[in-house]
Design brief:
The complex is a heterodimer.
Chain A lengths: L10 H25 L7 E5 L9 H4 L8 E5 L35 E7 L2 E6 L9 H9 L4 E5 L11 H5 L5 E5 L11
Antiparallel strand pairs in A: 1-6, 2-5, 3-4
Chain B lengths: L2 H28 L31 E8 L5 E6 L5 E5 L2 E5 L5 E6 L6 E4 L5 E5 L2 E5 L5 E4 L9 E7 L2 E6 L4 E5 L5 E5 L20 E3 L5 E5 L4 E5 L5 E5 L17 E4 L5 E5 L1 E2 L1 E5 L5 E6 L1 H4 L1 E2 L4 E4 L5 E5 L4 E7 L16
Antiparallel strand pairs in B: 1-26, 2-3, 3-4, 4-5, 6-7, 7-8, 8-9, 10-11, 11-12, 12-13, 14-15, 15-16, 16-17, 18-19, 19-21, 20-23, 21-22, 24-25, 25-26
Classes of the chains: A alpha+beta, B mainly beta.
The structure holds iron/sulfur cluster (3 copies).
The site of one iron/sulfur cluster has 14 residues of chain A, from helix 4.
Chain lengths: ~190, ~350
């Protein structure tokens, strides 16, 4: 089925949904922060998205069986492209969600029609393994709105992070636990 | 214990020690704390673009004849004037070079330039984020136009004798002005009654160029098309297909820059798999100027301009260089003669 045949979300509804998602993200993030034991002045690991080259090591070098690194999406930077190069293979047969067209090996990216010709992309973090494949596609052709971050309700905050040791681009940094993310900004 | 029993116990102990040693050697060999052996993910997880855009050598009919450093940390836009002087905007300045690439002057700006055009009379129009500033041929500021809309972000300007066309990527419109700055009309906005689908601009790249046939060519990057408009704003025709093949536009938003050759053919630049190619006015691919093997894989996009002799002047923002291409026998875009342009 073509994605155009899915129920369209009217612009206002879309904005409401986006606001709800932002609130949920905020509440979720806040809850995660409260759950994790933090001491004043504590520092945690994070990825500098400007340095990350999406090499794939984040998916396999974490001490956890399922990496603490996941893809996140900056809606403010996204072009809501019909042909998202983070979602579709570099040369898709068709712009549908058929498996041969999509890029994410775990099916973690959800595509929803907004209004012609715009689509919204969200990451299902339960499915994402932090491989960075979508990050590469988005960075190379698009706006770089998909990028990797350490998810702090999963990360054990190891003294020596084993991904940081294996990172070829020295993208891993210590940040204050009070501000644990390095969000990309619209420039 | 019999002598035989003692020997077999020693043999078993030796075997255990040997196996432990082998296990230790294997563990040390496999231990890869610094990621030397890569991510060990399968092929499904690799993002492969190496063979995505093969360019047949006989399609490459330009050679790079000169290249010089733009001298800017972040060069953003390029233009060529009627006397073939080359202007580059970036780092809150406009710098210019002789046609051979020798530095010839510089002028500071009050903001970060996003695009630039030099008209036949030598007047410069510079896009500075949301608005346009006008400079006389000597570089003195003559006017600053008010932004068209709250989201205005100017990414290209084309100057005709009695009209100035401004590409506003933020408002997803082309703005037609008179040279004195009076706004005439928007072009390219979605209009079902006139069968205009509307410009789709996912990233800050919207370009335009005046065709030799009197029609304005405008990129519609989100639809992977080039559209031709009359000065009244009618959409006359459009061409372009999405795809990685060299006669198509690749990725989410391409082409990103346009220029017009003296014979009316269009020079189109793509980002991602950075490519510059020449298309007939109706869109048929004529040839390739340079591909990703020279211009690289990047999301920056090379601005392009054309001089009076038909040389294609390319601003390579990744290398921070100006590259000058001339027609050449089929074969390759990097010429043996490439060197510093003004030596
Ligand atoms: S491609 Fe990789 S990083 Fe991107 S969403 Fe899928 S699993 Fe996550
Ligand atoms: S600090 Fe530990 S748990 Fe967190 S990402 Fe690094 S290896 Fe994984
Ligand atoms: S190891 Fe470093 S470069 Fe590789 S994906 Fe992780 S942060 Fe990015």
């Amino acid at each position: 089925m073509s994605d155009h045949e899915t129920t369209p979300i009217p612009r206002r509804g879309f904005m409401r949904a986006a606001a709800r998602a932002a609130c949920a993200l905020g509440i979720g993030g806040g809850a995660a922060y409260l759950v994790a034991p933090r001491t004043p002045g504590e520092r945690v690991w994070q990825i500098d998205p400007e340095k990350c080259i999406a090499c794939g090591n984040c998916a396999t070098y974490c001490v956890l069986r399922e990496s603490a690194v996941k893809c996140v999406h900056s809606f403010a930077m996204c072009g809501y492209c019909e042909l998202c190069t983070g979602f579709f293979n570099p040369s898709p047969n068709d712009l549908t969600t058929a498996a041969e067209n999509v890029l994410c090996p775990t099916g973690a990216i959800v595509r929803r029609f907004v209004e012609d010709p715009y689509f919204e992309y969200t990451i299902d973090q339960n499915l994402c393994i932090g491989c960075g494949k979508c990050v590469k596609g988005c960075k190379m052709f698009g706006n770089g709105s998909l990028y990797l971050q350490v998810i702090h309700d999963r990360c054990l905050n190891c003294n020596q992070c084993s991904i940081a040791a294996a990172c070829p681009s020295e993208a891993w940094v210590r940040v204050p636990a009070a501000r644990p993310h390095l969000w990309k900004k619209v420039t | 214990m019999t002598a035989r029993g003692a020997i077999s116990t020693r043999a078993a102990a030796g075997l255990i020690v040997f196996l432990a040693l082998v296990a230790a050697v294997v563990a040390v060999a496999l231990h890869d704390p610094i990621g030397r052996r890569g991510n060990r993910l399968g092929r499904d997880f690799a993002y492969e673009t190496k063979d995505l855009r093969p360019i047949p050598p006989d399609l490459i009919r330009y050679a790079e004849r000169a290249a010089f450093d733009a001298g800017l940390a972040v060069p953003r836009a390029i233009a060529v004037d009627a006397g073939d002087k080359i202007y580059v905007a970036g780092d809150r300045a406009v710098v210019w070079f002789t046609t051979h690439g020798a530095p010839a002057g510089a002028r500071a700006l009050d903001g970060e330039p996003t695009c630039l055009a030099v008209g036949a009379d030598g007047t410069w129009h510079v896009g500075l984020g949301g608005h346009v500033e006008v400079f006389d041929p000597a570089g003195a500021r003559a006017a600053a136009w008010t932004p068209h809309g709250a989201r205005s972000y100017i990414t290209a300007i084309a100057a005709a004798p009695d009209a100035i066309f401004v590409a506003d990527a933020g408002e997803r419109l082309v703005l037609l002005y008179r040279p004195d700055g009076a706004f005439v009309r928007p072009i390219g906005g979605r209009d079902a009654a006139r069968a205009i689908p509307g410009l789709v601009v996912p990233s800050p790249f919207l370009d335009l160029a005046m065709g030799k046939d009197g029609l304005l060519r405008v990129t519609n990057p989100g639809r992977r098309k080039v559209e031709a408009y009359s000065l009244e704003g009618d959409l006359c025709f459009a061409w372009g297909e999405a795809g990685a093949a060299i006669d198509r536009f690749c990725g989410c938003c391409n082409p990103v820059h346009l220029a017009v050759l003296p014979d009316g053919a269009l020079v189109a630049a793509e980002k991602g798999l950075a490519t510059v190619k020449v298309c007939e006015p109706d869109g048929a691919l004529r040839c390739v100027v340079a591909g990703p093997d020279l211009l690289g894989e990047n999301a920056l996009g090379c601005d392009v301009a054309v001089d009076s002799r038909g040389r294609i002047v390319v601003l390579d923002p990744a290398a921070k260089k100006v590259r000058i291409f001339e027609p050449a026998p089929p074969g390759g875009s990097r010429s043996q003669e490439t060197g510093s342009a003004h030596e």
